[in-house]
Amino acid sequence: MVNYITQSKELTALKxxxxxxxxxxxxxxxAVKDFEKVDYFNDKVRxxxxxxxxxxxxxxxxxxxxxxxxxxxxxVLESKGIVGHxxxxxxxxxxxxxDVYPKVVFDTxxxxxxxxxxxxxxKHSLSAVAVRLTDEEVDKTYQTSPWWVENLxxxxxxYSAKDIEVLRSIFREQVVRLNxxxxxxxxxxxxxxxxxxxxxxxxxxMAFLPCLVSIxxxxxxxxEKQLSNLIKNSKTTFQNLYIEFKRKYxxxxxxxxxxxxxxxxxxxxKLPKTEKGSFSSQDVHLKPYEDKPEVKTLLSIRYEKKxxxxxxxxxxxxxxxxxYGEFKQIGASTGRMSSYKPNLQNIPKNxxxxxxxxxxxxxxxxxxxxxELRIAAEYTKDKxxxxxxxxxxxxxxxxxxxxxxxxxxxxxxxxxxLAKAINFGLIYGISPKxxxxxxxxxxxxDITLSQAKTFHENFFNFYPKFKEWHENVKNYxxxxxxxxxxxxxxxxxxxxxxxxxVNYPIQGSGSDLLKMxxxxxxxxxxxxxxxxxxxxxDEIVVEVKQEDVDKVQEILSQxxxxxxxxxxxxxxxxxEINVSKSWSKE
DNA sequence: TACGGTAGCTCG
DNA sequence: GTACGAGCTACCGTAC
Length: 586
Description:
single chain; alpha+beta; Nucleotidyltransferase, domain 5; Taq DNA Polymerase, Chain T, domain 4; DNA polymerase, domain 1; 4-stranded antiparallel beta sheet; 21 helices; globular; DNA-binding; EC 2.7.7.7; DNA replication; RNaseH-like_sf; DNA polymerase I
């Protein structure tokens, strides 16, 4: 039954009706004119649909009295579980419109992504999930109908209620499927108590969701003055270089064709070909010719342009000296988040200093050290690697001594860098051939193919469980064509390629770890004036009131440590923590 | 003119 | 036999 609520007094009766329920279904309709430009701070929530197993209540936020509604929502939604689809959207609006912050949630959008196990062909809209899991269909025609008009049509009200019906069926099916997953860890937290979900990955993601809502609503502080100055200066520098270049060489430095032609014909440079057969003028291929002024200027032009573009992109998203970006909670099939509008996870190192905490505040910047190697050691149970980490050895140096046969103490910086390349590359199944390229491009180290082969071999002989792991995966794949692999928490992927199968558990466990650390951090924060403002795969950036720095730093350390101990039983985790006025550690 | 794919660069 | 995961911009060919 659908109840359309337009009068404040009806809320009292509704509150009584919902009193004993552990959770409700929730959806909202927001008066957004252009869904490309959702403004979480200014757009208005029109309808709040609350569903029980039997009934659906559609509350018209434009009709009922504001304060009564706020009080009602706070009392009801913060005291029980919430089931919804893509709840980050609804939760952000509940926060900005009504100051309401539900903490115990189940998001069918997130659940659907977890259940997909990396199948990127699956879509996760409410209607796509409904078709896949139930026999119901959803008509989205009214989603973008005018939700701001004074009197809504009967169709609009019915549409808004229909989503709740679909949500019920999806939710029930997802809980069954999530709980069917084989897992060695079982969740016993809120997600279990309220929704009956034992799946630990789902439990983590659902606990993480409200944290992510807080992160997005916080934004990250930026020094607006420094930003505009940088843009101004960078513009001038770039324009001067650009005009000078065109005047001198009569070509456009941004036309790949003209540049390639100029470099090869006029300067006689030897450049490799791209896939399509044209000459490639990538920075890395031009680096060796940096002593030529034409090349040097060209590289500078590119550098300035990149800086300028990035700064201008950032400035598009600045409001009140903060950048409000968005995250996809499961942006990669490994469970990693991705960041967009703008992407705050690929800010060039040299620009991080423009992110500055406001007066009276500081950043705490924490990142896990060599986390993927530690996870690989834990995952493979390789004795040598575990021992090295337990003894707090520098693993890159150790690998360097293993592959070169030199003494651990005598490893040079260059050898350590080479080992770094090998350590990372070999986790992901790099071939000796690619290793040569990789060492060259990323560390500017020249090795021959036969050297690479030797290093490859020495590495696998010293870390035998690594070899075994790769061989097992390879053999299994040859026989079965696909393999299900999982992270330390139990996040799953069906892999068809060797490199995916070996990469996933490592990268995926890293994302389990970071999300868990953030959840634990928020749980212990209580009323301290601190909030997470960015997450970059193995890094947590917290903005904190100056006087709370010590306490918050301690809580953050303990959270990262605890998450580490929960997921890694044999290998210790380590992390760096810095307190700084800006994101660059200074 | 709009869209999709590719190359190239940034980060982890 | 294959290093992995993202987002953003500019360019370029194709379709309308």
